[in-house]
Amino acid sequence: MATASKQYEELTVESAVALARTHYPFPEGAALECDEIGDGNLNYVFRVADPESGKSVILKQALPYAKVVGESWPLTLQRAQIEADALRKHGEFVPNLVPTVYATDAVLALTVMEDLSHLTIAREGLIAGKAYPQLSTDIGEYLARTLFQTSDFALHPFEKKELAAAFSNPELCKITEDLIFTDPFFDNETNDFEPELKEAVEALWANKALQLEAAKLKFSFLTEAEALLHGDLHTGSIFASDSETKVIDPEFAYYGPIGFDVGLFLANLIFQSLTRNGDQRNVVNSHIERTWETFEARFTDLWKNKGIEAFQQTDGYREFIIEKIFRDALGFAGCELIRRTIGLAHVKDLDGIEDDSRRIELKEQALHLGEKLILQRAEVKSIYEVTALIGEAE
Amino acid sequence: MATASKQYEELTVESAVALARTHYPFPEGAALECDEIGDGNLNYVFRVADPESGKSVILKQALPYAKVVGESWPLTLQRAQIEADALRKHGEFVPNLVPTVYATDAVLALTVMEDLSHLTIAREGLIAGKAYPQLSTDIGEYLARTLFQTSDFALHPFEKKELAAAFSNPELCKITEDLIFTDPFFDNETNDFEPELKEAVEALWANKALQLEAAKLKFSFLTEAEALLHGDLHTGSIFASDSETKVIDPEFAYYGPIGFDVGLFLANLIFQSLTRNGDQRNVVNSHIERTWETFEARFTDLWKNKGIEAFQQTDGYREFIIEKIFRDALGFAGCELIRRTIGLAHVKDLDGIEDDSRRIELKEQALHLGEKLILQRAEVKSIYEVTALIGEAE
């Protein structure tokens, strides 16, 4: 269901409750409670609940500006519609792995959706030492299904091209183009790192081979319309428990290279792995390996059973595509490792470490691992070599 | 200027004259003459002229169906708008190398444009033995300017993505996907070849390495949104004289891999080269070489002087991109050589040869050269190796 209000205005607790009643089947006359639970940087997130029936719903409203490290800049409200449309499109293939969208209002930049507050943001849980046994099989499944099913391997070209045009997302793509693929590789004012990292960062900026590979990866992000990506699949975009996984926040969705979603998720597991030791690290390394194993196995199943491409049966074609995705994923993971360490937006896995020398040490490891994945992505033989590299980073 | 009629109807000589008066500044009261000069398969082309002033104009109207070898199938009228928009967009960069568009009417699928009937279609002229001394420098220039200037190397990403969405062209792309990249590689009913070629064609269908490379090239065509292509740049889409070159008919325009336009043009010169001997062949081989030389030199100039990419100065990046375009172009040229020999749509350069054994011999050469370019595109060192291969094909 989609409605359109007359003009944009920021929701209040009162208007959120009224909209919740309209768009969600609360019992008549229910005494609804409402809290704003977002971080307020990009969106309002209102949770509206009826304590008596136990029913609840989320109202997410995009704000017309983004606040990052104290600065504020305008940001298209259209991202709310992109996000809701991506949730619905991906939901066709993995209804169990994304929240249900009940309604949208394009003018209010509002999405009314399933309340997932019984789950925890995976990054927070992982930092707290959770194992999340389902995480990697679920995300491997999510990646394979959403990406294969929106690609030319599964869709009639008319449908694929219509989706690609509908999910044109220039403003949010530009954030990625700048913050992941450009600024961290140059001495740009958006970068943010501790003085202790200066030497490592300057070596990175002076690494000409790395610059060239970063340029190639950026070109791939700019031009390769392979599938409808989530576009920002880090562990902060995933709600999880021991038995459930839900991917949220696809406001960066657009048609791009399949390896980008895979690589971003792997990189964010790598951050977590770097912070752990022994068996605890093995838990995360198993997630890294199982993500790829599950992705590859499911992608192969889909290729064989849902593929419509005339060359589907051609010897070596599936292997070529999976190999391309793997190489791309390693390169994109490398970019994410670097930008989350020295760029504008960091990860709590590392920034949350209070011991200065330990934090700096791990950040240097993240940087070196990022460089390695970018430079050696053509040679790395398997996902097991990737987890081995994490151990070698010390 | 753009007008919109109320409903589509096929033009007549009378309505063409009336529209010509509206959209082109003929002298008041001029006694206009009008001829339909198209081939009637896809479009009407009316030439409206005032013999007294010597002024004339072309009215091109898309027909709602395509007739190919006796069959008729519906085809989007939107292609007229795509074609006019591509002529205008490319005209911003090479006003001297495309016809001027005076007006369009989206409902009538009509474009009013510059009359080029003082020129000859390059394919016809080349078959008749013309040298067209400007042809390759002009087309090299056309390729470099139109492709560089519509790429991420020159455009702000917002503008590029807006153009990419606006030039989404699924129906015409599908024709290419089927007729160039799919059908000729399988025993498909759209294929069309002499019985004498059966053995060579069956060997081609059984060539698994070739199938795999064709699959990769098709994937590139489907996914790589690098620049606004002409999309069908063969020698039948070019008007020429000894001193002028004009590229027409970009109804297949869409955002695709840069090498596709380059490769299609090269392949069509290769057909012509195959039909010639000695000095006459050298004239065409020089065109092949000079097209690439001019493209590479001009693309390099533009990169240095008009490039906006942050990695513009990165050592080896320009060379990497130009190398990618070269390899892609060879592969796409190979596909064009094959499909124009055994697929649905042939070229007069070969089909027009009356001597049966000579025609079959040249078609076999075209097929083998096509296979070679596809399979060896990663190893061919230069455009001079390509022209050398033409000699070796005998």
Automatic annotation (TrEMBL), chains A, B:
Pathway: Amino-acid biosynthesis; L-methionine biosynthesis via salvage pathway; S-methyl-5-thio-alpha-D-ribose 1-phosphate from S-methyl-5'-thioadenosine (hydrolase route): step 2/2
Keywords: Amino-acid biosynthesis, ATP-binding, Kinase, Methionine biosynthesis, Nucleotide-binding, Transferase
Signal peptide segment: none
NCBIfam families tied to this protein: MTRK
HAMAP family referenced in this protein's UniProt entry, alphabetically: Salvage_MtnK
Family named by the database record: Belongs to the methylthioribose kinase family.
Protein name: Methylthioribose kinase
